[in-house]
Design a protein that fits this description.
Elements (H helix, E strand, L loop, with lengths): L2 H23 L4 H15 L11 H34 L3 H11 L5 H13 L2 H8 L1
Length: about 130
């Protein structure tokens, strides 16, 4: 088997694993949304001693920001998954290359996978596999 094909196959498998991890970790911002929901509940239901309630706008900021980070994490996980599929099929060279560059932001697994993907995709022999 051609070593370039083997490297692309391994990179595709690792992209699937990192996409699963990214999808898992994207659920953590929902904790902020839940905390915002508790603050919103507390803002509308004062305690028995008429305590000062937290501001409702703070709750909405937490809810919206948690939801946005959750959606951004899921979107990134889907992009990593699609990039892995592109590597396996040897299609969409530039999409896989750009996602590999973006993956370098996410330490430590994304950085390692992104750097190795960039190294493999930079080879001329791999570029010819994608163009064929």
């Amino acid at each position: 088997m051609n070593p370039d094909n083997e490297h692309l196959r391994l990179l595709a498998i690792f992209h699937y694993v990192v996409a699963g991890l990214a999808a898992l970790f994207s659920f953590f911002p929902l904790l902020y949304s839940a905390m915002g929901g508790f603050i919103l509940y507390a803002a509308h239901h004062p305690g028995p001693h008429n305590q000062e309630t937290p501001p409702a706008f703070l709750a909405w900021i937490l809810i919206v920001m948690g939801a946005l980070f959750f959606l951004a994490g899921l979107t990134m996980a889907m992009c990593i998954l699609i990039a892995g599929r592109s590597l396996a099929r040897q299609r969409h060279y530039w999409f896989a290359f750009v996602i590999a560059c973006i993956e370098c932001i996410f330490m430590p697994f994304g950085t390692i996978l992104g750097v190795f993907t960039i190294i493999v995709l930079s080879r001329e022999s791999v570029k010819t596999l994608f163009s064929a």
